[in-house]
């Protein structure tokens, strides 16, 4: 039994249900994504590197006369949905002026509750073999990817979750490669391009099926894609129960503001066993820490998902199955002006790009994973390629384990050298300008250049370790 020490219960916390917590399930972020932007002059969050975190910056003042109306509606919606947020937090535009971030406004102690959210104010899909009832039932069984199901689930409930959906990034500010025009994918290594294309096709197919079933008015394409970015990049996974139906959720959670429209009647849906594989694809590098025998759940947690990523500590996010409340706590103390961040999991640049559409500078979890090139490319001989293939090695992962591969030392050396040189050719700094000009938008260009820059750092480090001259 886990009992919250009274000292950790902040003054603003409601007095009920928080001292006795019979069983708390720790969950971890599967992924994450983001929101429409607002006034851009006061910015301080995420994208601008770790330095920002260390200094205690002044909280930026909002531009004169500018109100973030989308945020205000979201705050009203949260109040009506019984989501409580610490009064020591604010949501502000991020450093790019496109998304938002959560900033500390008064001294915060480690362990203080930041957000408390009833399960009824989350959107969830379970990953067992049950089906939803209602209009989505047939479609559901043909689309087992849980992120796709969660997207449909959210949009189908948009009468209830409108202000939350409004906070999500608009399509032209989502830079995940599955939304790039196909011609831009040529700037990525084949492995990443293939993965982005597979997701793009799965989404196109999923929405075509919705249209075929006459459901595209209920789930319009642009909202579906935005919601998918949310599901793929800001959903949390863990164990726990979801309400058996939306009406049960209303009864339990009291989402008084929410109109019980036809879409909301779809309820909380479940997924078949294949969805577990789908979720694993989405989850790729994340960890799920949970012990309950109940089904896995993939959930969108409004407000908790306003927090941006920084490699390091994961969130202290727990679900209490008795009170059915999610709770996010501070993993350290914060000073006014500091951005609240947590790690979405140990994700390298490739995973962050594919899943979220951003790349962290100097990512401590970064990892170089490269496909071995074709014979004759960058000096790779047919013999060495054959030896690698015989050993079942198609990729080299520079995580310290290469020397354990069961191939001869000279062959490994040749493969490493050719692989590093080919990868270096594909992301030469001198080509950056051309690449940025050729891609379809400045946003994609910005993310792609960051990805190339981080890749060059990894390549240089690997070349140093393996004593490879990258450019000869
Ligand atoms: C859980 S949301 C965080 C809140 C989000 N910034 C918003 O405005 O709604 C995750 C998304 O925010 C953005 N994001 C999070 N951390 C970031 C970072 N360190 N740098 C750039 N973008 C980040 C990415 O688009 C990501 O998919």
UniProtKB/TrEMBL annotation:
UniProt keyword terms in alphabetical order: Isomerase
Q: Which domain of life is it from?
A: Eukaryota
Q: Which Pfam families match?
A: SET
Q: Which PROSITE patterns match?
A: SET (PS50280)
Q: Gene3D superfamilies in the record, alphabetically?
A: set domain protein methyltransferase, domain 1
Q: Which GO terms describe its molecular function?
A: isomerase activity; protein-lysine N-methyltransferase activity
Annotated ranges, domain SET: 87-345
What is the protein's given name? Peptidylprolyl isomerase
Source organism per entry reads Cladocopium goreaui
């Amino acid at each position: 039994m886990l009992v919250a020490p009274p000292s950790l219960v902040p003054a603003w916390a409601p007095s009920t249900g928080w001292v006795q917590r019979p069983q708390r399930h720790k969950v971890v972020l599967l992924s994450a994504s983001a929101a429409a932007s607002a006034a851009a002059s006061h910015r301080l969050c995420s994208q601008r590197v770790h330095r920002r975190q260390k200094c205690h910056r002044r909280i930026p003042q909002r531009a004169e006369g500018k109100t973030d109306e989308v945020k205000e509606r979201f705050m009203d919606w949260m109040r009506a949905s019984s989501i409580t947020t610490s009064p020591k937090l604010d949501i502000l535009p991020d450093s790019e002026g496109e998304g938002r971030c959560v900033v500390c406004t008064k001294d915060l102690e480690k362990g203080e509750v930041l957000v408390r959210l009833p399960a009824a104010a989350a959107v969830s899909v379970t990953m067992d073999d049950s089906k939803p009832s209602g209009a989505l039932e047939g479609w559901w069984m043909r689309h087992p990817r849980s992120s796709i199901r969660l997207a449909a689930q959210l949009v189908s409930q948009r009468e209830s979750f409108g202000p939350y959906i409004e906070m999500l990034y608009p399509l032209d500010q989502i830079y995940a490669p599955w939304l790039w025009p196909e011609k831009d994918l040529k700037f990525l290594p084949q492995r990443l391009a293939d993965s982005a294309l597979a997701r793009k096709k799965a989404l196109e197919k999923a929405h075509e099926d919705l249209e075929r079933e006459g459901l595209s008015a209920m789930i319009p394409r642009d909202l579906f894609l935005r919601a998918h970015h949310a599901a793929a990049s800001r959903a949390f996974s863990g164990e726990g129960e979801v309400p058996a139906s939306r009406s049960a959720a209303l009864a339990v959670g009291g989402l008084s503001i929410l109109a019980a429209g036809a879409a909301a009647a779809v309820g909380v849906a479940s997924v078949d066993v294949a969805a577990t594989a789908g979720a694993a694809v989405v989850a790729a590098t994340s960890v799920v820490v949970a012990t309950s025998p109940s089904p896995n759940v993939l959930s969108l947690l409004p407000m908790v998902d306003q927090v941006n990523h920084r490699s390091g500590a994961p969130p202290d996010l727990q679900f209490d199955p008795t009170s059915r409340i999610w709770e996010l706590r501070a993993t350290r103390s914060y000073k006014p002006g500091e951005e609240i961040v947590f790690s979405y999991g140990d994700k390298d640049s490739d995973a962050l790009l594919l899943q979220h559409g951003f790349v962290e500078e100097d990512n401590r979890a970064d990892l170089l994973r490269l496909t071995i090139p074709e014979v004759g490319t960058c000096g790779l001989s047919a013999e060495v390629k054959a030896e690698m293939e015989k050993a079942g090695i198609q990729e080299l992962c520079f995580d310290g384990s290469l020397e354990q591969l069961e191939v001869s030392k000279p062959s490994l050396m040749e493969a490493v050298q050719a692989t590093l040189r080919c990868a270096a050719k594909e992301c030469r700094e001198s080509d950056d300008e051309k690449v940025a000009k050729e891609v379809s938008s400045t946003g994609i260009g910005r993310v792609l250049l960051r990805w190339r820059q981080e890749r060059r750092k990894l390549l240089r480090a690997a070349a140093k370790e393996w004593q490879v001259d990258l450019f000869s």
